From TrEMBL:
Organism the protein comes from: Suillus placidus
Name of this chain's protein: Integrase core domain-containing protein
Biological classification of the source: Eukaryota, Fungi, Dikarya, Basidiomycota, Agaricomycotina
Name of a matching Pfam family: rva_4
Segments forming domain Integrase core: 137-314
InterPro entries according to UniProt: Integrase_dom_put
Superkingdom per UniProt: Eukaryota
Amino acid sequence: MPNQWKPTPPLDIIEPHILRLWKARQTDKQIVAELQKHFDTSRYGLGLTKFLKVREGMGLRRTRQQFHTVDTIRKAMTDLRQTYPNAGAREVVSLFFHERNMSVARSVVISYFNIYEPELVLQRKANHLRRRCFWAAGVNDIFAVDQHDKWLRYGLGLHTGIEPFSGRIMWMRVWHSNRNPQLILSYYLDTLDMLGHMPMVTQSDPGSENFGIANAHTMLCQWHDPALQGTLQHRWMRNKKNVMPEITWSQMRRWFTPGFESLLDHGVMSGWYNSNNTLQMMVFRWVFIPWLQRELDAYQDRVNNTRKRRDRNKILPHGVPNLVYQSPENFGALNFKITVECEALDHVRNLYINPSHVVFDLVPQSFGKLIQRCYEELGRPSVTRQSVWDVYLHLLDVLQVNEEIPSAIEDVEEDLPLLENHQDLPYREESNGTYYMGRVGGGLGLSDEHLHQLDNIAQDDEPETIRIDEDIVGLDHDGLVIWEFSDDSGDGDADVVDEW
């Protein structure tokens, strides 16, 4: 009996999922298979032929349909190189896709490099790597957090949170501080509020700026499981490397920051900005921080929707970080997320965060109203890479003749005491130096029940070809994912090698 014809599902139902999967660079067949989960298949039908028509109607065209050559990408490449001078071939392909809506073959980018940047190709050198490893048992086993201080010379502090198993960046923030425990905690709680769940354990380097996350996460865990009373649900990486954030910072400094640092240094060297000048510092914050946050948001989105570079020596549950995080069962992995009650989030937020604290003000409130008024008088010019210093200088000129300039308010980075009478979680370390710092099995790793769940997942899905990733080197006999990173620079940051 022939199959009954079914209409295509309404576009408003499937379009958000098509765009999400398109951004993650999924194939047409993969998108069609995933879309079946998001509409009533008893009423609607969507096969590959229908989907291709829908995709064309949305203006989404594959690489072969765009016909890009070295000549057609040259202008866009020149613009991108101003901001991303050190990006390799894979990164440039990703930048074209996510920032310019251009699908360009990697072979075209490599040909461009060979023609116009041969000296940079020759400069690529292999690093001498020093290997270290740690494990994660599955998605939401660990959130690892870390600050980055290399932009403090501009008065800018960076902070990130990483889900190590998927490699997903949970947040990447820029502000005029990265040491205040209330501010750092707000990043974490905002993320939990958006997700509706939390990991089993949080992890960071020692430092009082992380006491807010340590306290709040411990209280949230105990709220949902009273049996955890008396145990700190946060890992202090005292003698271990906080691996994944260090890898993230290393990658960002290689691929993202050089162009932006060049732009910031241009203003400093030109005498336009001195972080010790109160007025210049406040105008700089008001103009640059929101713009840089938008750029970091775009970078985070691009990384989370890009498959990692292949490496024959290293193994990872293959996939795009967003997709691994959202559907770990599709990658033969477990999800250890803990659903968070809104009442619990509100409790710890009210306990530890004062929303009127000056650290949450971009600039003093009275000055914020003044600079906003001046900005509107200038016609609300857009802030871009090309215009950001012009907007800053125009606002500075207007404000320098204004008598309403308030004095600067120093950030108060008061200490927040750590919860008392709480023991650290045990951890598991092997004789070869690899270690597990999650909370599965009370800190000792996967139990027989977890291994049985993994076996069931493996039986449901036929194994696919294993792809290789730059950060993950293998699976141990218990199914724990093992990360490996290098540090040959002596600066304490992990180093990751890209390729041209």
